[in-house]
Amino acid sequence: MMHIVDTPEPTNPGDTAGEIGGEPGGEPELRVVADDSVGAVTKDRYRTDVTTLTERIAIRLAGDGAEHPVAAAITIAVRGMARLEPGDYADVLGLAPADVRALEAGTVPLGELPAALWRLVHDHGLEPVMLVDLDRQLRGD
Amino acid sequence: MAAMAAGDQAALFPFLDEFGDRLGGMVRAVFRSVHRHDLASDPNEVDYHVQTAALVLFDRAAGWDPDGALPWTWANRAIRAAIIDRIGHPSVELLEVDLDLRTPGGGAAAAAGAVADVDFDEMATTYPLVVLVVRAVRSVANERDAAVHLEYQAQKSMGDRQPAHPVGDMFDLTPANVRKIDQRVRAKLSALAASDPAFAALARVAWVEAC
Q1: How far is it, in rounded angstroms, from Cα B200 to Cα A50?
Q2: Domain ranges, residue B120
């Protein structure tokens, strides 16, 4: 059953955001950078409210019928922020590529996301409380 | 754009990293074009609609031609429509004072026990054209006819398809009488606008122009 959820309002996100990088051909490494403000334009990148964007992706996935859209959106968002190819992303998470595909397809509940992914959620400035709350709303709790 | 065209929503994040500032400029321009300077100066609002723009581009990415215009130029209309859909169409903020109910003793309508939703005297304190309209109406009609005319036009402007009925009830007139009074007042206003330069601006009032 699809539940109606309000589109997230513009919000002021947390104070940190992260970035994952890696040497070509080497192991991807975690690199955390500070985030100053929403919508800020720095000399090399724009900083968007990644939690709101993740929520919006989750709502779209829910509309497409994903069973666990928030879990899927988080997995997709972290890969996007990390700028990783799916294979490298699977390596970072210590998962098989098929498992990552399952996560992104929304077949895994939020509570069963791997710990390595939750660490990246924090590192990238995603706000877990808001995302968990959206998950509850979408499930009609 | 290629990744987005392939349906990879993860691509939205690096896309916004790279081009969010460009989209931000476009979003602010849309806000300003509808006189929402308050939104244009709010970073959170701008960012939210930067995301909206990116999502519009995501949905349309498969149709974008890399040899053509920049994506946000190519999808300008769609992005603008999405933003306007969210923030609403251009409007003037509705002031509570504009809808303040007329207090008893405030003219013929009040004397007749009627309650007007629109107080032209109150609006006249804010809008110069209303001052002119009220002055003109009261110069060409007696107190009751002026009140009938203004109430009739107010009802009509609010979308009432049969404004003569409630106005007739207010002033204890038949609907036909209300329409006749309104017609006479409009004709006099039209003549006044044509003959007196001080009231020439009345020609900008739709119901006078229609005479």
Answers
A1: 56
A2: 96-209
CATH code at position A84: 1.10.260
Task: Say how many domains are in chain B.
Answer: 2
Which of B34, B52, B87 is where one domain is finished? Answer: B87
Q: Is the pTM higher than 0.80?
A: no
Residue A37 forms contact with B (CB below 8 Å):
yes
A80–B12 C-beta distance less than 8 A? yes
CATH number at residue B63: 1.10.1740
Domain that holds residue A86: 48-139
Which of B8, B48, B55, B83 is most worth mutating to test chain A (most A CB atoms within 10 A of its CB)? B48
Q: What tens-digit pLDDT sequence spans chain B (211 residues)?
A: 888 988 899 999 999 999 999 999 999 999 988 888 889 999 999 999 999 999 999 999 888 888 888 888 888 888 998 998 888 765 555 555 555 444 444 444 444 444 445 667 777 676 777 888 888 888 899 989 998 988 888 877 766 777 888 888 888 888 889 999 998 998 888 888 888 888 888 777 766 655 5
Chain B contact for A116, CB < 8 A? Answer: no
CB distance A120 to A20 below 8 Å: yes
Query: Which residues of chain A have a CB within 8 Å of the CB of B43?
Result: 37-40
Residue A21 falls within a domain, yes or no?
A: no
Contacts of A126 in chain B (CB under 8 A): none
